[in-house]
Every structure is written in structure tokens, then in C-alpha cells.
Amino acid sequence: MGSLYPHYEEENYSSNTANLLNPEEFRRQGHMIIDFIADYYQNMEKYPVLSQVQPGYLAKLLPKSAPNIPEPIEAILHDIQQYIIPGITHWQSPNYFAYFHSSGSIAGFLGEVLSTGFNVVGFNWISSPAATELEFVTMDWLGQMLGLPQSFLFSGTGGGVIQGTTCEAILCTLVAARDQMLAKVGRENMGKLVFYGSDQTHCALLKAAKVAGLECKNFRSIKTMRSTAFQLSAESLRTTIRLDVEAGLIPAFLCATMGTTSTTAVDPIRSLSEVTKEYGMWIHVDAAYAGSACICPEYRHFIDGVENVNSFSFNAHKWFFTTLDCCCLWVKDPGALTKSLSSSAEYLKNNASGSKQVVDYKDWQITLSRRFRSMKLWLVLRSYGVENLRNFLRSHVKMAIRFQQLVESDNRFEVVVPRNFAMVCFRVLPTSLKKEPNGCKIESGNIEAKLIDQEYANDFNRNLLETVNASGKVFMTHTIVEGIYVIRFAVGATLTEDKHVIKAWKVVQETVDGMLATI
Length: 519
Hints:
Shape: globular
InterPro entries: Aromatic_deC, PyrdxlP-dep_de-COase, PyrdxlP-dep_Trfase, PyrdxlP-dep_Trfase_major, PyrdxlP-dep_Trfase_small, Pyridoxal-P_BS
CATH superfamily of the largest domain: Type I PLP-dependent aspartate aminotransferase-like (Major domain)
GO molecular function, one term: pyridoxal phosphate binding
Cofactor: pyridoxal 5'-phosphate
Pfam families: Pyridoxal_deC (PF00282)
Distance between the termini: 58 Å
Family: Belongs to the group II decarboxylase family.
Structural class: alpha/beta
Strand content: 5-15%
Strand order of the largest sheet: 1-7-6-5-4-2-3
CATH architecture of the largest domain: 3-Layer(aba) Sandwich
């Protein structure tokens, strides 16, 4: 079979790839890939937002084994266009409103390119001094932007580290909290340690506990209520802790959340920290989604009381225009992390580390090796500046407010919980559904009928979301709170504009019109 790319005959192409880092070949292919990505962004709206492929589609299209001889980049890019892009759910699409976004930017993308190009493995200072020092400088910059206390910064008594994801940040802080408490009560009491969150806390906490060897039965998922916007109340926490103490257990760790995944609820940090202080507990604030908003003065109040917590993290790869992965974690006491996570071997010893005058980030994380993540964050901060970054975030909030107003203007719908940031939780109201389920007339005080009514409304909203997503025009996701099926509309993709928000609402309305017409 003849080559599809005759100007790259096998012998000629093989000679060009003999040097795997040939500068001219790198330049040629690099230009092609940058153009490919630029075209992808330019044509993003031509693709269905949610991938329409079926499980197992790709194995049927690709060869059964890897090629024995080199293939030209032209052939590879052709196959990416033909086979890979149809299987991508387009997170950067302006019509993507699902989960929490992974917002990108030119600076974030090119910072990733630089980081990958240098390809350093900065596990300790000497392995690449610039990688370490740029990270702690950038983390201090960002901590100042957020209004974190000096006690969390290297310029104070704390410090920051870039983890991969929130799951890693929670695991690191949970392990530090575990060991800190066991140093007081004895390691034989590990089975008595209790860790706390709300029923809205991210599932990463329970996963981290499993990895850390804690008893899953000792996780307290404290109930929250719609009437209090799904916040974890200090009184509920105190009551739960008292019961545990009376049972001979040891409260050790609380994960409070600023911007929960389901509804962006915000736990009251100050009042919760007052409770944890009574029991000598570690309190971590998971601000994975909404932490970035604190660079705007009007949102800083959401973390009032942060000076009383032990650690704080947010994902710059969610709503801060920095490509995945980039979770920023600050701790008041870096020594608590390094006592639990440090590793040492003869082949890692060096004069700089021995001097105790440098940061060795390998001791601040689970893994030894680490990427040069600070490069992309540094580029984002420098390329856009604080004021522009604030305005980008505010524009997303403004678009979410616009969507909220559209929902509230249609009496068939309701906003289920108050909007805090750039996400709106909504649904079609049970009273908007003409058919009375199972012939049961809904009457005031008829609890059984109301439950049936809610179940019917949940099914309707579930079908609504599935139909909307199947259209490929927009993509949203859901949650369930207090038994209510809720559609989540999260604004945050970098390319999203007002017109996309209005379009999404029209898709929802038209879909509901069609569904109601069949009832």
C-alpha cells in the first residue's frame, strides 16, 4: 500500500526522526500543532459539546498494535481530527456549562508548553532551583491576591505548594492532621480518629481517608438543609463532636468548603473554626471552585475567619484560566506536612537541602517527582494582571445572573438555591406539570401525593437534562439535594459570551415546550 504522504517516504522520514529533539523538526511540527489547536478553538462551536460516541468506539477504529516504523505528524493529526475529536467532550466550548469548568487561556496554554519544553523534575531545590523558587514566589503573589493572612505565606511563617488536584491537597492535609493528632494521643489510637464534613463535602475526603488508613466508619457526614442554603452549621458540628467524645473517640479533622460541588454552598469558616479550636482539630478549607473569586474584594468575606484554619486550597485550573493540573495549597505550618511526607535517601542528599535554607517540595506532596506547574500560573498572573483577572471572573458572574433572571422570568421554573458565584441551580417546578402523576390529586397537606409529585418532577427534569445534552447544543450536569433533582448551569468557560447563555436558555425552554406538549 502506497504512502498517503508521498513527500515523506519511509527512508527520508526515518532519517528526520533519528534525533528525537531535532530543533528544526521540532519547530516544524510545533507550528503545525499550534495551528491545529488554534483551528480547533476557532471551530469549537461546530462540534457537539457532549461527545456522541458509544463506549468502545475507539478500539474499533485504531490498529491492534503500535506501528513498527515512524508515521508522519500529518498522518497523526489527520487521525486526531477523524477519530479523537469526535470522542472529546469539549470542555473549552462556550456552550459548556457542566460540572465545574476547566478554564483555559493563551497564557495558561503557553505556560504549559514552556513547562513541558523544559521538562524538569523539580523534586528538590538543586534539581532545578528556578522551578522551586518560582513556585514559592508565585504562591506568595497569589496568596496576597486572595487576602490570605501572612501566616500562610513564605514571607510569613507558612507557605504554599502547587499540587495536582484537590484530592491530593486533601490527602496531604489529612495525613498531616492524622500524624499531628497521633503524636499527642499515641498511634495505637488511630482507629479512634474521627474526621468531619457535611453531606455536601466533596467525595475526595472519604477517598483520602481510605488512602490514609482511617476508618471510613469514622467519617461524619453532617446533614445540611435547603432552608440554610446547605451550609454546615457550627452547632451541628459541635453536637456531633460532643457525641463522639462521649463515645471515647478523638475528633481530628474538619473539611469546610467554600463553594460546594452540588450548589456552591459556603460553610461559615469563622464559626466552624471556633468549634475545631476547642478540640485541637485541624481544619482545612476546600475552595476548589470558588476560591479564585476571593481576588475580588466583594467576595473576600466568604473566607472570613480563614486566619483560624490550618490549610486552604483552590484549583487554579477550574476558574482561574490555568490549564489542568494546578491546585494551590497553603499551610500555616509547613513542618506539619514535611513531618508526614518527607523522604530521604543517600542519592537525594545535597548541601543545599542539608543547609535547611531551601524548600524541597518533594516533602510537601505524596509523590517524589513533580512538574514545573508554577510556570503556567506565573504566566497567567503576569499576562493578565490582577485587575483583568478580577474582571474576567466578574463577567462570568454577570452572565450567571443573566441566566438566573431568565429562569426567574418563566414561572414554570425555580432557582432551587441562592446563587453565590457563577452557577445557577434550577429545575422545572412540579406545579408546571399538567398531568397529575398516578391519578393522585395534589392537595395541601397530602404528604404522600407531594412525594409522588416530587418524584414525577425529578423524572421530568432528568429527562429534560438528558434531552438537552443529547442535542449537542449545550452541556449541563445535575445534582440531587434534599431529594430534589437539580440542573446545574455553571458559567466559566473562557470563550462563553452573553449570546451563549441566552442560547442555552432557549434550548432549555424549547425542550420543555416540546416535552410539556406530549403530557
